[in-house]
Amino acid sequence: MNRSRRSSRLRPDAPILESGFSNFLSEHQPEHMPSREPLSDDAIDDALADLDGWSHADDKLHKTYEFSDFREAISFVVRLSFYAEEMMHHPELENVYNTVSIALTTHDAGGKVTEMDVELASQIEELA
């Protein structure tokens, strides 16, 4: 395979990716950019009430997802990467075969949980 042709097919801005996800992102994008100010423990607890399976420990929001196989798990990671890029907020990810573990914290807020983390967790839930 021609190397330049292969590279152009894998570009993140390639038309197939852009057309496939830009509409999806615009429909699910938050109306405002969430705050990067640290949330209180009470505010985090309130947010977790709406985020099934998420927990709060070590100043991070955590959840592990299980999929049918490796391909499904990686597909999920790729889809969530579009949200993360759009929000300019990137999760800590760990993949082992069919599981994906996610930790969310805002480094700009001293490694504390913020509205950005809650919003990204909410967006990730829509993908799962």
From TrEMBL:
TM helices/strands, residue ranges: none
Keywords assigned: Lyase
Record keyword Transmembrane helix present: no
A Pfam family reported for this protein in Swiss-Prot or TrEMBL: Pterin_4a
Single GO molecular function: 4-alpha-hydroxytetrahydrobiopterin dehydratase activity
Enzymatic reactions: (4aS,6R)-4a-hydroxy-L-erythro-5,6,7,8-tetrahydrobiopterin = (6R)-L-erythro-6,7-dihydrobiopterin + H2O
Highest taxon in the source lineage: Bacteria
InterPro entries tied to this protein: PCD_sf (IPR036428), Pterin_deHydtase (IPR001533)
Catalytic activity, EC: 4.2.1.96
Gene Ontology biological process terms from the UniProt entry: tetrahydrobiopterin biosynthetic process
Family: Belongs to the pterin-4-alpha-carbinolamine dehydratase family.
NCBIfam families attached to this UniProt entry: PRK00823.1-2
HAMAP family: Pterin_4_alpha
Name this protein carries in UniProt: Putative pterin-4-alpha-carbinolamine dehydratase
